[in-house]
């Protein structure tokens, strides 16, 4: 066997991974964001590169170093992320949306710093476009599309709904309320949901989980041929 090839099952494949949070400006000094660290997405990007893939990482603001060999497109807002992902989506074999995309953006960003004059402050928010949904709408026959789901209740039910609604091949459902799972840590606890299967995983490092996710997606692609 060609040893190099045997260890590079994703050689020749193009993979787009999104990671991290997004930031929605309120005024020149403030923004709305979430607790995503980007670790899961960065781990997937690194694992995909190690398996031979041509990896593009679209990343919201994180404190992480871009792994060796990976092209990283830095974005700030959900709108920026939408634009750069949609632009490169059609060339990709696998798209993995691990970013925690902000659901709402401030309707009118103030030009000047908002002063604390009143006792209460109301911000009008507008729903952002759902990138994964749009990718599902445009999905090509040979493309593999993977999303994540963050839930604090009815995890499986909500994740299955997202799988259908967003036309994904797999949803990695995060047990946000379980110890060792979620946004900031180095470990995760997930259930992977595909059209035909539900795979439960116990506590795992994000590095290890990255390989499991990619292997599961490769299996799904293999079953199509
Ligand atoms: N997602 C996206 N674009 C958005 C919001 C979410 O692409 N504007 C993607 C996320 O990257 C993730 C998946 O959709 O892969 C599910 O995100 P999640 O926040 O769990 O679900 P939502 O569909 O946003 O619904 P809700 O937050 O109300 O549960
Ligand atoms: Ca959301």
TrEMBL record:
Residues 15-225 are annotated as: Phosphopantothenate--cysteine ligase. Its cofactor is Mg(2+); FMN. It comes from the Bacteria. Coiled coil: none annotated. Residues 11-218 form the DNA/pantothenate metabolism flavoprotein C-terminal domain. GO terms for biological process: coenzyme A biosynthetic process; pantothenate catabolic process. Its EC number is 4.1.1.36, 6.3.2.5. CTP binds at residues 103, 113, 148, 162, 166. It catalyses: N-[(R)-4-phosphopantothenoyl]-L-cysteine + H(+) = (R)-4'-phosphopantetheine + CO2; (R)-4'-phosphopantothenate + L-cysteine + CTP = N-[(R)-4-phosphopantothenoyl]-L-cysteine + CMP + diphosphate + H(+). GO terms for cellular component: phosphopantothenoylcysteine decarboxylase complex. GO terms for molecular function: FMN binding; metal ion binding; phosphopantothenate--cysteine ligase activity; phosphopantothenoylcysteine decarboxylase activity. Pathway: Cofactor biosynthesis; coenzyme A biosynthesis; CoA from (R)-pantothenate: step 2/5; Cofactor biosynthesis; coenzyme A biosynthesis; CoA from (R)-pantothenate: step 3/5. Binds 1 FMN per subunit. Keywords: Decarboxylase, Flavoprotein, FMN, Ligase, Lyase, Magnesium, Metal-binding, Multifunctional enzyme. Catalyzes two sequential steps in the biosynthesis of coenzyme A. In the first step cysteine is conjugated to 4'-phosphopantothenate to form 4-phosphopantothenoylcysteine. In the second step the latter compound is decarboxylated to form 4'-phosphopantotheine. Catalyzes two steps in the biosynthesis of coenzyme A. In the first step cysteine is conjugated to 4'-phosphopantothenate to form 4-phosphopantothenoylcysteine, in the latter compound is decarboxylated to form 4'-phosphopantotheine. In the N-terminal section; belongs to the HFCD (homo-oligomeric flavin containing Cys decarboxylase) superfamily. This is Coenzyme A biosynthesis bifunctional protein CoaBC. It comes from Longibaculum muris.
């Amino acid at each position: 066997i060609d040893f190099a090839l045997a260890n590079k099952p994703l050689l020749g494949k193009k993979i787009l991974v999104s990671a991290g949070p997004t930031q929605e400006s309120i005024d020149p000094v403030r923004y709305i964001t979430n607790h995503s660290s980007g670790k899961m997405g960065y781990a997937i990007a690194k694992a995909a590169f190690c398996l031979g893939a041509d990896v593009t990482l679209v990343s919201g603001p994180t404190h992480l170093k871009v792994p060796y060999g990976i092209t990283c497109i830095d974005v700030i807002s959900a709108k920026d992320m939408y634009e750069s992902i949609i632009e490169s989506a059609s060339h990709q074999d696998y798209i993995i949306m691990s970013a925690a995309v902000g659901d709402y953006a401030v309707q009118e960003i103030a030009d000047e710093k908002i002063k604390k004059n009143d006792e209460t402050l109301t911000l009008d928010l507008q729903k952002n476009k759902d990138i994964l949904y749009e990718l599902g709408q445009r999905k090509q026959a040979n493309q593999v599309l993977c999303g994540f789901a963050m839930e604090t209740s009815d995890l499986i039910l909500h994740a299955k709904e997202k799988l259908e609604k967003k036309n994904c091949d797999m949803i990695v459902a995060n047990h946000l309320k379980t110890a060792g799972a979620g946004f900031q840590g180095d470990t995760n606890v997930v259930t992977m949901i595909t059209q035909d299967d539900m795979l439960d995983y116990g506590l795992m490092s994000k590095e290890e989980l990255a390989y499991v996710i990619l292997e599961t997606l490769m299996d799904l692609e293999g079953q199509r041929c």
